[in-house]
Specification:
Layout lengths: L8 H5 L14 E6 L3 H12 L10 E7 L3 H11 L3 E3 L2 H6 L5 E4 L6 H10 L3 E4 L7 H13 L4 E3 L7 H11 L6 E9 L16 H4 L3 H16 L3 E9 L4 E3 L5 E3 L5 E8 L4 E7 L8 E8 L2 E6 L5 E6 L10 E4 L20 H18 L7 H18 L5 E2 L7
Helix pairs in contact: 2-10, 5-6, 6-11, 9-11
Bound molecules: nicotinamide-adenine-dinucleotide.
Length: about 400
């Protein structure tokens, strides 16, 4: 049986909605470090928060930081950043900056996060949090010492269908949980001629697809099912040499694909498969959960839908029903469009940032907590240990939230 609480009903019951808006006492200056893929996604989210929150106009896009001048110019032009810099150390110290948002390669996360926390700033950091468990714990220690807030961009928690899945589980509609199954498959590395990048270099990325896509589904497993006790897995590097964009030869030092099994502390069995070599799959983040009273299925490529099967239905009517998660009663939807006017991938980033800002303003608990994120890092490390020739590896010692 599952021993721990699956869902903190009090947290959501005490709030009128998943985020409550109070006008800010003063303007909130943002410094975003990294102007690549996630730099663009976070810039768009900060801008789009104006569509749903009364404090939108008080969020000031103060400074965009990147090593690349054309990226900085492009983001200033597109999103209205007021200034730019190639020096993150100087940028985060400016007094008008209240929140530092980190969207750089993984090797910089800990250094920037700890410096920003020490400078008294709120910090939002992209995943995976860190290169190692030791680095993640150093961030945790800095966050605990600080009065400011810290969150990690596990955006898939903030997809309305995922929040609804958590609610359905918390209401006991799946009963005792038996299985959690996750596949997160992409194909942008399937071609052997796909170029070398920092993402394939262990010194910069920390790990390959395991830390990249694996971190997302590990977090969803924690969010929906609870902590994992132990794991067993294997990883593979399927194309070992790739050319850098300038034509120089490069060696891939991270995993391209990973599979692992997990035993959850509550007794459920989990299976996970992640790959960036899955020809034909673009962003196929699929979750399936079965319990003794029901089951759920989710597919990110159809993110407005949640499939639900219930043994409470009369036997002759049993079957998976597809819930279109766009009703005003569904998580976050009261802030958007009439039913059926579907949301997209970027809305999860908007919900995540809006929730974080709402927590900062209202003093409410931030989720995922820094403990959740350290726990994710512990699972990543346990899978790596197992993949390096081991069998089942215990997760921990970590602190579950
Ligand atoms: N949550 C998600 O859905 C999601 C998706 C993709 C990537 N990510 C994460 O976001 C982070 C960034 O990934 P990305 O895809 O945006 O990478 P990217 O390569 O597109 O961008 C990286 C940015 O960091 C900047 N940068 C690098 N070194 C710097 C330095 N010393 N000072 C200032 N800027 C520097 C680069 O100039 C670039 O603008 C990674 O942690 C990645 O895992 C998250």
């Amino acid at each position: 049986m599952h021993s721990g609480p699956l869902y903190d009903k009090r947290k959501f019951a005490s709030r009128a909605s998943l985020f409550e808006f109070t006008k800010l006492a003063e303007n909130l200056g943002i410094c975003l470090i990294g102007a690549g893929f996630m730099g663009r996604a976070h810039s768009a989210a900060f801008r789009n928060i104006q569509a749903i929150s009364p404090f939108g106009r008080q969020i000031i896009l103060q400074s965009i930081v990147s090593r690349t001048e054309h990226e900085r110019a492009q983001l200033r032009e597109r999103y209205g950043w007021l200034s730019d810099s190639d020096d993150w150390r100087a940028a985060i110290r400016r007094p008008e900056i209240a929140l530092v948002d980190i969207a750089t390669p993984t090797d910089l996360h800990a250094e920037i996060a700890i410096a920003a926390l020490k400078a008294g700033k709120h910090v939002l950091c992209e995943k995976p949090l860190a290169m190692t468990v030791a680095e993640a714990k150093a961030i945790q220690a800095a966050a605990r010492k600080n009065a400011t807030r810290f969150a990690v961009a596990f955006n898939y928690r903030f997809v309305p269908a995922i929040q609804l899945a958590r609610q359905i589980i918390a209401e006991g509609r799946l009963g005792r949980l038996y299985h959690f199954r996750a596949r997160y498959l992409q194909d942008w590395l399937a071609a052997p001629e796909a170029p070398m990048s920092w993402r394939l270099d262990k010194e910069r990325a920390g790990s390959g697809v395991l830390g990249d896509l694996g971190a997302h589904v590990i977090d969803l497993a924690h969010f929906l099912v609870g902590p994992m006790a132990d794991v067993v897995g294997r990883t593979a590097t399927l194309v070992g040499e790739r050319k850098w964009p300038d034509g120089k030869a490069g060696t891939v030092t991270v995993d391209d694909a990973a599979s692992f099994l997990a035993r959850f502390a509550g007794g459920a069995l989990g299976s996970f498969e992640v790959s960036r070599m899955a020809t034909g799959s673009k962003n196929r983040n699929q979750i399936e959960i079965e319990g003794d009273r029901g089951a759920l299925r989710f597919d990110l490529e159809r993110l407005n839908e949640l499939e639900f099967y219930s043994t409470d239905d009369p036997p002759h009517l049993r079957g998976f029903r597809t819930i279109l998660v766009t009703e005003p009663e569904h998580p976050f939807l009261e802030h958007w469009w009439p039913p059926g006017h579907v949301l997209g991938w970027e809305h999860a980033h908007i919900h995540l940032i809006a929730s974080f800002l709402s927590d900062i303003v209202n003093g409410t608990a931030t989720a995922p907590t820094v403990e959740d994120v350290v726990t994710c890092q512990l699972v990543l490390e346990a899978v790596e240990q197992s993949a390096n020739g081991g069998g089942w590896v215990k997760v921990g010692p970590g602190e579950q939230s």
